[in-house]
Amino acid sequence: MQRPIVLTFLRCANLSLLVLYPVAWFAPLMRAGVLPLFSLNEISVVTGLQSLWGSDVFLALVVTVFALFAPYLKTILLALLHFDLLSARTLPAIHVMGKLAMADIFLIAVYITLSKGIGIGRIETAWGLYLFTVLILASILISWLSEQLQKRPKD
User: Fold this and answer.
1) Tens-digit pLDDT profile for residues 18-61
2) Which pTM value belongs to this model?
3) Nearest to 107 by CA among 26, 19, 30
4) What are the domain boundaries of the chain?
């Protein structure tokens, strides 16, 4: 493909993340319940953060940075790069933001694994977890393609 077509695709894909991340933050990541016979409560990134702020402020701050700020800031930086408003020398910093953003998927996976291992309650994954995971992986792919595009000579 030609460079302008690829760049246009990357711009559109990256800008769509700016809209889809907030959707993923409010989408149900999982449904949790204490006993199998009772209904399950839906947990999203936002509701999880709300309960964390009430119990463990430090952990809530860490998760807020990883789940909200890091992926969104990375997406904004990539958009600036795509529109030539940011130097290509910032790509290493953008990669660091991407690694921070991936940490939240790990935290969610640990939470689900621990909850299922205890055996007290019931946890079911919901569509928001898949959406959030796809968005993080799409962001990683967009970053990688952007880096490859920056390495190629301009047409």
Assistant:
1) 999 999 989 998 777 765 545 567 888 888 888 878 888 888 88
2) 0.79
3) 30
4) 3-151
